[in-house]
Amino acid sequence: MSLPTTQKQWLVQGTDKGLDGLVYQDAPVPQVGDTDVLVKLRGASVNYRDLIIPRGHYPFPLRMPVVAGSDGAGEVVAVGSKVTKWKPGDKVVTLFNQGHQAGPVTVAASTTGLGGCIDGTMRQYGVFDQNGVARMPKNLDFVEAATLSCAALTSWNALYGLKRLQKGETVLVQGTGGVSLFALQFAKAAGATVIATTSSAEKAEVLKKLGADHVINYREDPNWGETARKLTPNGEGVEHVIEVGGAGTMTQSLKAIKYEGVISIIGFLGGANPKESTLEALSHVCTIRGVYVGSKQQLEEMVAAIEQHDIHPVVDKTVFTLDKVKEAYDYMWEQKHFGKIGIKIE
């Protein structure tokens, strides 16, 4: 097929202008190197990091200017002369940290994040090293698959990266963001019990439909950590906590955790200044672990599980097109979404 020479893309020009520094522009379709693949991107999705990078609040390495977006799915349309893993027509998803292939993340790998250090996915065509993409799940469409790169892989790493989730264990997930909903689905597929927290009866019903065994309204029950603990066998606590609130929720997460359990810190929506001493990990005999997405090996393992259990991401009812990315960012900033926000790319 003949390929165009130009494309549309969203460029983050810097971190001092807010969304005014996010520009929709024409750009050349990138050239394919010897070990690269050119992907016609068909879907992308929005993460909280996308909103805070232009605002200057992102705590990880950045190289400006950079094409926005970390999550993408599409079709390989050209390959370099030394590519052995892919052919035109293959459907793929992007790996967030392109250099994180297996094992623990390294400092070097942390500087290979799409949409921060390397040009990302909010564009029509992207070039990636052949090791920077993975096979797309056969049971998902492009927009669904585009939600996997960060939120899904982060939750998979939280449940399997340090101390692997076992059937019969209990997982506590906080809220209805993308990471929490993926963790709920992955935990149920593994035969675990899931306790979920939320702030409304409407969201509670959706969580139950997704398989949550218990739902606690944290506005009505400020001591929800102790309540969660009481729901576990012999009141011993939960094996895994998906911690997204940060300083606002850590006190309750510590009340809920079982001896030798793992609290995986994903975000800091409730604030980044810790109110709890890290020495609390000793008195609660638990591991408190920061999770920075995951590796290519974990991505491939997760894709296989998604296919095996026919898991479908929770995608918000409003799907945006590429030219409406700023509107999608505002939609997320105003917390109008439920689940992941999808971007359809033509």
Automatic annotation (TrEMBL):
Gene3D superfamilies linked: Medium-chain alcohol dehydrogenases, catalytic domain, NAD(P)-binding Rossmann-like Domain
Domain Enoyl reductase (ER): 18-343
CDD domains linked to this entry: MDR7
Highest rank taxon of the organism: Eukaryota
Coiled-coil residues: none
GO molecular function, one term: oxidoreductase activity
Membrane-crossing residue ranges in chain numbering: none
Species per Swiss-Prot/TrEMBL record: Chaetomium strumarium
Protein name: Alcohol dehydrogenase-like protein
InterPro entries: ADH-like_C (IPR013149), ADH-like_N (IPR013154), ER (IPR020843), GroES-like_sf (IPR011032), NAD(P)-bd_dom_sf (IPR036291), Zinc_ADH-like (IPR052711)
Annotated PANTHER family: PTHR45033, ZINC-TYPE ALCOHOL DEHYDROGENASE-LIKE PROTEIN C1773.06C
